[in-house]
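User: I'm preparing a small set of examples for a lab meeting where we compare how different chains pack in three dimensions. I only have the primary sequence for this one, and I'd like the structure in token form so I can line it up with the others. Please keep the answer compact; I'll paste it straight into my notes.
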Amino acid sequence: MKERVKKEHRPVFDLLKGLSDNLNQLTRLAHAKGIERLEKQIAPVLQEVRRLLKDLRDDR
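Assistant: Understood. Below is the structure token output for the 60-residue chain.
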């Protein structure tokens, strides 16, 4: 049976899950307080998610 996710990629998926949880919390705050106030906090999270996804794609 073929593995859907490589074992070495599991830590990356765990990190992505944590980052997505943080992003969801920041999104809720952005709706409550206005996106402009949280833009600086959101940008690094999005950048890290993009980097991790790129690493996964490049490591197929």
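A couple of notes for your slides: The helical segments are 10-33, 35-58. The CA atoms of residues 10 and 16 lie 10 Å apart.

User: Perfect, thanks.
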